[in-house]
Request: fold
Amino acid sequence: MGNRSRLFIQKKDKEIVLFESNNSLPFFWLTLVDKGEVVRALKYWRKLEKLEQYGEEEEIMESLEEYSTYIEISRKSLLQNITIAKQLLSTHFSKVIALYGDFVDFIQSNLNEEDTLYIDMIQFSSFYDSVDIFEKVILQEIDAVHQKKARNITFLDSNDLIASGTGFVNLLFVDFSKCDTYQNALKNRKSAPVKNQVTYSSKSLGMNLILLILCPVFSWITYKMIMDDGFTTGEIVLGLSNLGFYAVSLFGITSQYNAFRRNMKRNSKK
Reply:
């Protein structure tokens, strides 16, 4: 299933999902929120993070019932942020401005006075080592939008304006799903699939390093078994498996190193 994100409207009696995404957080959604709205929501996430480490299951469930994990977007900030985002996109990403215009028009046409707009991104945050790291990344992206620093934008990929732009529209909204800009984004996404970049994670790097350190141990065990018993099917399988672990760990370390370099390069531009 993956880690899902949702952009939805809460009405008096029901919740209506407008867009959703799997294993990604669409950039267009982030243009709608203020830093303060993110910070307020993530204060509660930190409480949940501590409860998951040290709290009882009953305490966690009670906390979930008492507070919302969603990021609320006020109507005032929505209108202000749309204006700011349009200025950024018109100047630096002119090819996506039409799609963005249809995206925000669609949201506003479905948002009544008594409704509330939310982003649910808590599952996506699990790709990061902690709430603090996730918050830093999201706030940097919002800063890049408000300061109109196009080179610091990391969530928008022009090769995939669905999962990195609008997200996938709820199929109940036929009109938007058939609009030209959305259909073009879908077609371009199919013809130019995006290779997902590995996100730097110290946990993943640590696990791969541990695996690499253990590989020589298994190599020595394999060698001893061959010396004692000769080449048998078991020794051959063990030896090939050990080579596979070498390959997996080295690939993982290389991927994490490259992801770390991308982060350093990105931060050096700020």
About this structure: The chain has two domains: 4-191, 202-268. Strands lie at 4-10, 15-22, 71-73, 116-120, 168-169. Residues 191-196 have pLDDT under 50 and may be disordered.
